[in-house]
Amino acid sequence: MGIFGAIGIAQSGLTVHRTWLDAVSDNLANLSTVRPTSEDAFRARYVVAQETPGAEGGVQVAGVAFGDAAGRLVYEPDNPLADETGYVRYPDIDMSSQMAQLIMAQRGYQANAAVVDRAKETYQAALQIGRS
């Protein structure tokens, strides 16, 4: 790993955690999205991360997995989107699970940002030593 390897690895972590935060926030925003039973429910997004191939280290987003399109049926006969039997379709998203994922993604993002800050401070200190 070169002298700037720590920043590169942390940057890859920042990218993955930002993508994870985006997915979780999208899931939470669509928690109450209602659809008719004739349509698919909102499908939750889950980020799939993998190690970056090669000797550089780091991680990358390998893809996005989607939740179940069937969602969950809820009896709401007064809803304008309800079918003839009174059911509508909601996404099958667990708010507590999403909040836990939000906290993990946020902490991972903060940890990688701290690595970038510390590496920057270290490189600046090394430059000051060189000037002295």
Give a summary of the structure in a few sentences.
With 132 residues, the protein is an alpha+beta fold. It has two helices and four strands; from the N terminus they run H-E-E-E-E-H.
Description:
With 132 residues, the chain is an alpha+beta fold. The chain has a domain at 5-31 and 44-68 and 94-131. The chain has helices at 5-29, 95-131; strands at 45-51, 59-66, 72-75, 87-90. A hairpin with a 7-residue loop joins strand 1 and strand 2 (59-66). Helix 1 runs antiparallel to helix 2. The chain starts with a helix and ends with a helix. The mean pLDDT is 92.
What is the global morphology?
Answer: elongated
Instruction: Tell me the major beta sheet.
Output: 2 strands, antiparallel
Average pLDDT over all residues: 92
Helix content: 40-55%
List keywords for this structure.
about 130 residues; alpha+beta; two-stranded antiparallel sheet; two-stranded antiparallel ribbon; 2 helices; about 45% helix; elongated
Write the layout of secondary structure elements.
Layout: H1 5-29, E1 45-51, E2 59-66, E3 72-75, E4 87-90, H2 95-131
Antiparallel strand pairs: 1-2, 3-4
